[in-house]
Design a protein that fits this description.
Length: about 300
């Protein structure tokens, strides 16, 4: 069995503080992962309006947004100007490349994408993707080949825009099966490699799961057979900060269980001689997370 560690980096603080700690952790075990960056302004504070959405309070109470994100981050874009992440963390992003990890795009503006993309049209979507790609190119000096949408949110235009903009594989969705997404009148040539496992913030607090037993719980999930291999999404703001000891423990379990670690690039190469289905994207709720997420329909 193999597992991809996909690191979503959502915030300025997560890039500055969480990413270096994850680099040190992965170096300790000689593991290569895929880091997906938020490249534009950190407007995390604007996400507070999600408080008024049904289901949010139960999630906040369980994962303690303040504890994991910090007060300053929650004021960005509201009472404090949101810092431009790539401009202020260029050296850190480059150090991820220098350490041999794969890098890709998470988004330009996380809150803007997550809260709006599902109802936006082609021009808005193309603009957001272009802004992210330009910042990626400007600060990392190359074109990205992979992307993983913020908050597992997208619209019908995203898969074909990803193909048009040169992404060859993406991890925008949840589900067990890689697929070529069928949207509009066409099938995108940009392969979806979904996140197969639950995230720590989805599991924490439910069914007696805490920081001390979450690694074992996730390891149990990873034992569920999947012929394509698993994809685990972690967050620089969580596993790179307060949940770093749990992530360390999870890696030890995975090594003991003889899981092979892959980047998304390695998984994509492995999948390229497999028969990959063409499927529409569907929407569903996932336990522990508020709102609907994009899913493979298998
Ligand atoms: Zn994210």
């Amino acid at each position: 069995m193999s597992i991809v560690l996909k690191v979503d980096v959502d915030t300025y603080r997560g890039t500055r503080e969480g990413v270096p700690r994850l680099l040190a952790l992965f170096a300790k075990y000689d593991i290569k992962a895929t880091f997906l960056f938020s490249l534009g302004p950190d407007n995390t504070g604007r996400a507070l309006k999600r408080i008024f959405r049904p289901g949010f309070f139960s999630k906040v109470a369980r994962t303690s947004v303040l504890e994991h994100y910090g007060l300053k981050t929650l004021l960005y874009g509201v009472l404090l100007p949101g810092p431009h992440i790539a401009k202020n963390t260029e050296q850190i992003m480059r150090s991820v490349v220098d350490a041999g990890h794969e890098v890709g795009v998470h988004c330009y503006d996380h809150v803007r994408w997550q809260d709006n993309v599902r109802n936006q049209g082609e021009d808005w979507t193309r603009n957001q993707l272009n802004l992210a790609m330009q910042a990626f190119d400007q600060y990392l000096g190359c074109k990205p080949t992979t992307i993983g949408a913020a908050g597992w949110q997208l619209n019908d235009f995203v898969p074909h825009l990803e193909a048009e903009l040169g992404f060859t594989y993406a991890s925008d969705t949840r589900g067990d099966t890689p697929f070529f997404p069928q949207t509009l009148a066409a099938t995108s040539s940009c392969m979806q490699i979904p996140t197969t496992l639950p995230t720590m913030d989805e599991l924490l607090g439910a069914n007696g799961i805490s920081g001390t037993n979450i690694a074992e719980c996730l390891f149990q999930h990873s034992l569920k057979a999947n012929e394509y291999g698993h994809v685990y999404t972690l967050h620089a703001e969580m596993e790179g900060m307060k949940l770093l000891p749990a992530m360390d423990q999870l890696i030890q379990y995975l090594i003991a269980g003889e899981q092979q670690f892959q980047t998304l690039a390695e998984r994509h190469a492995y999948l390229s001689d497999r028969e990959i289905p063409m499927l529409p994207i569907t929407w569903a709720e996932i336990e522990g997370r508020s709102g609907e997420l994009a899913m493979s329909s298998f």
